[in-house]
Design a protein that fits this description.
The chain is an all-beta fold. It has no helices and eleven strands. Strands 2, 4, 5, 6, 9, 10 and 11 form a seven-stranded mixed β-sheet that branches. Strands 1-3-8-7 form a four-stranded antiparallel β-sheet, with no helix packed on it. A hairpin with a 4-residue loop joins strand 7 and strand 8.
Amino acid sequence: QVQLVESGGGLVQAGGSLRLSCAASGRTFSSATMGWFRQAPGKEREFVAAINWSGHSTYYEDSVKGRFTISRDNAKNTGSLQMDSLKPEDTAVYYCAAGRGAHWTNAYEYDYWGQGTQVTVSS
């Protein structure tokens, strides 16, 4: 069993930065893929970024490539999403997820989810 708690969301102006954190409990986090998803009002949840269990492999949704950086520290059971050059269209609730599925961009491949943290980017 893995429990995930996100933090670090908030209100920021366009062009600014935020760093989201994901604190995990449970022994299996270090062997699981970690992903970040987001959901804007009236839209479906969408994939943002993922990192494999070792941290050596990452994957990003096209619109965040070069602006967002995903990382993890298995010794501390934590993960993070550094978000730079934020745009108003990045406004959403951001979720941390963990799982062992092969298709990182598919939300159904993740077994554990946090409660989400709100990110609002003003223009």
